[in-house]
């Protein structure tokens, strides 16, 4: 079992114990965070859903990211990740929303190098953001983004019991 799958088991258990839910708005990972959580038996009790917003216009129309922000800063920006997280939380009526945007490669996007990933987390009390600088090919960057997003949620929930 990979680190992300192991962490997903612990997160699903922790969310179930708290009576909380999670939703995602994913760009570069195209649903991999939701899919990873869904590998856990019983995930339907906590995984509300996810938005795959690979295209820039869908970040606005589906997840509610400001069109002005997208025009001014582009799709790969820390505030975009935050707004994706808020949009996932609100649109899916979840306790927690995770938002991911970045460049998986192999080529730069809008002058941003592959491996740059911005993660957003919207919760009941606040919103947080984290930027990762990942290395490797597309698959490695996307896998690292999934793990990073799950770790961001883990940090917000506090210590988890991993089985």
Protein described:
Helices cover 43% and strands 20% of the residues. It has helices at residues 3-18, 32-38, 56-61, 67-73, 78-91, 138-157, and strands at residues 22-26, 47-52, 96-102, 116-122, 127-133. The chain has a five-stranded mixed sheet with strand order 2-1-3-4-5. A hairpin with a 4-residue loop joins strand 4 (116-122) and strand 5 (127-133).
Task: Summarize the topology.
Blueprint: H1 3-18, E1 22-26, H2 32-38, E2 47-52, H3 56-61, H4 67-73, H5 78-91, E3 96-102, E4 116-122, E5 127-133, H6 138-157
Parallel strand pairs: 1-2, 1-3
Antiparallel strand pairs: 3-4, 4-5
Q: In a nutshell, what does this entry contain?
A:
The chain has helices at about 5-20, 30-40, 55-60, 65-75, 80-90, 140-155, and strands at about 20-25, 45-50, 95-100, 115-120, 125-135. It is an alpha/beta fold.
The run of helices and strands is HEHEHHHEEEH
How large is the count of helical segments?
A: 6
N-to-C span? 12 Å
**Residue runs with pLDDT of under 50 for 5 or more positions:** none
Arithmetic mean of pLDDT: 96
Order of adjacent strands in the largest pleated sheet: 2-1-3-4-5
Q: Which band does the percent of strand residues land in?
A: 15-25%
Q: Helicity range of the residues?
A: 40-55%
Principal-axes geometry comes out as: globular
What does the main sheet amount to?
A: 5 strands, mixed
Class per helix and strand makeup: alpha/beta
* CA-atom Rg in angstroms: 15 Å
**Can you count the beta strands?**
5
């Amino acid at each position: 079992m990979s680190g992300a799958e192991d962490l997903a088991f612990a997160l699903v258990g922790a969310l179930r114990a708290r009576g909380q839910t999670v939703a995602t708005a994913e760009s570069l990972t195209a649903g991999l965070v939701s899919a990873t959580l869904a590998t856990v038996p019983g995930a339907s009790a906590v995984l509300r859903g996810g938005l795959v917003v690979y295209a820039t216009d869908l970040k606005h129309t589906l997840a509610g990211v400001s069109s002005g922000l997208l025009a001014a800063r582009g799709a790969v920006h820390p505030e975009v990740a935050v707004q994706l997280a808020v949009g996932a939380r609100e649109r899916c009526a979840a306790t927690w929303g995770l938002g991911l945007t970045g460049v998986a490669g192999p080529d730069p996007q809008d002058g941003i190098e592959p491996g740059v990933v911005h993660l957003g987390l919207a919760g009941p009390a606040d919103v947080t953001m984290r930027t990762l600088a990942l290395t490797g090919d597309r698959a490695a960057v996307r896998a690292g983004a999934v793990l990073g997003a799950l770790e961001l949620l883990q940090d917000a929930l506090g210590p988890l019991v991993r089985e």
